[in-house]
UniProtKB/TrEMBL annotation:
The lineage of its organism: Eukaryota, Metazoa, Spiralia, Gnathifera, Rotifera. It is an enzyme of class 3 (hydrolase). This is nicotinamidase. Pathway: Cofactor biosynthesis; nicotinate biosynthesis; nicotinate from nicotinamide: step 1/1. PANTHER family: LD05707P, PYRAZINAMIDASE/NICOTINAMIDASE.
Length: 364
């Protein structure tokens, strides 16, 4: 071990954020700040800042690619007094929460609708256009549950009454809006009808499925059930369907999921289950809306329609959701594999909060 720090520090042998992972005191933050202060001036240059970002957004010491414009943007946003240096206060206020979440995320696994009807029952995915096998998600999810240290696990259930609006069999129960493209007589499975309501809704017609307290609504028998999990039941209102585990399709009513995740200080939501292009993507989209860093584990999802899966993928991606394979999830949850694209939204959010507190106008 050298006695003196050299002017240009060598690459770190170990993760320079290790101490922060254990302990988020001001002292540890200062230590981290000094680590990247190559000229011991008490503030960072652009190069120091870039080195910090490269070490932060890395996986097992391998930095992720960062666009120069993004580095520059982060620098400008962090440099509140615009003196072209980042001092400790600026670093601390802009990065405290963001750093914490990047290094020590609180992660929830949300397991969407792994129910018999979607696997072997009335709405089995193997009969849908994409021809997926729903049961293939079960061993993948079980492996994730065994190998990953999630702080919270939630199971969601599609949970319909007999007279539910989404059932093809119930298409004559409600008045159809004249603007509906097809009539109840003409409608085929997977067509959409517009019902007069209230509320007026456009609804895809699915075969009757996941009726409350039936075998079809039960979770697959091989899916591991963990203790102290959250259980969310959705779609119980006969007149409004609910794809997302956060809100119904009309956003009239919220489930308890968000509240329960917030109670447990969750920062990151990993979504898996059935079906990718319907309930999984709707849940992921609302998770982003609620400001969770959101990850979709692709090999732990199966869907209805291949084209629609791609559409939803692009849309989610645009909003900041990332798509990963289950084998990288342990590193992400442990704060070792730190993805830059997950931090973008939360960084923006933190800066806005700082600006609000300090009354600094947001020119952007
Ligand atoms: Zn349903």
């Amino acid at each position: 071990m050298g006695q003196k720090e050299s002017m240009s520090p060598p690459p770190f042998d170990s993760d320079p954020f290790d101490c922060l992972k254990r302990n988020f005191t001001e002292e540890e933050l200062k230590k981290c700040f000094r680590h990247f202060d190559s000229t011991n001036q008490g503030s960072w240059s652009h190069d120091d800042f870039q080195r910090f970002l490269k070490e932060l957004f890395s996986n097992k010491r391998q930095p992720y690619f960062l666009l120069t414009e993004l580095v520059e943007q982060y620098f400008q946003e962090t440099d509140f007094n615009q003196d072209n240096r980042i001092d400790f206060d600026e670093f601390q206020q802009a990065w405290k929460e963001t750093l914490k979440t990047t290094l020590k995320p609180v992660s929830a696994l949300v397991i969407v609708d792994v129910q018999n009807d979607f696997i072997s029952g009335t709405l089995a995915l193997h009969s849908c256009p994409a021809n997926h096998q729903g049961e293939e998600v079960v061993p993948v999810i079980n492996r994730v549950l065994r190998n990953v240290r999630f702080d919270v696990v939630a199971y969601t259930y599609d949970w319909h009454p007999h007279n539910h609006i989404s059932f093809y069999e119930n298409r004559y129960l409600r008045e159809i809006d004249p603007e509906s493209k097809v009539s109840a007589d003409e409608a085929k499975l997977l067509d959409s009808l517009i019902f007069v309501g209230p509320p007026r809704v456009e609804q895809v017609l699915w075969p009757a499925h996941c009726v409350q307290d039936t075998r079809g609504a039960a979770l697959h028998k091989d899916l591991i059930l963990v203790d102290n999990a959250i259980h969310v039941f959705k779609g119980a209102n006969p007149n409004v369907d609910s794809y997302s585990a956060f809100w119904d399709n009309m956003k009239l009513a919220k489930t308890t999921l968000d509240e329960q995740l917030k109670e447990r200080n969750v920062t990151d939501v990993y979504v898996v289950g059935l079906a990718t292009d319907i309930c999984v993507s709707a849940t992921a989209m609302h998770s982003l809306e609620h400001n969770y860093r959101t990850v979709l584990i692709e090999d732990a999802c199966r869907g209805v329609d291949a084209k629609e899966i791609e559409v939803k993928r692009l849309e989610l991606n645009r909003h900041g959701c990332i798509f990963v394979d289950s084998n990288v999830v342990p590193g992400m949850v442990d704060g070792i594999d730190r993805r830059p694209e997950l931090t973008r939204n939360i960084f923006k959010e933190n800066l806005n909060n700082i600006r609000l507190k300090k009354n600094i106008p947001n020119e952007r």
